[in-house]
Amino acid sequence: MIRVGITGGIGSGKSRVSCYWASRFALPLINLDQICRELLAPGEPGWLALSRALPDTFFLQDGSLDRKQLRTALFAEPRFRHKVDGLLHPLARTCMQRKVSQAGARVVLIEIPLLLEAGWEREVDRVVLVFAHDAARIQRVSQRDAVTRREAQQAIAAQADLASKIYAADHVIDNGGPWADTCLQIRHLGRLYV
Question: I want to staple 151 with a disulfide (CB 3.0 to 4.6 A). Which of 27, 28, 147, 188 is the partner?
Answer without folding.
Answer: 147
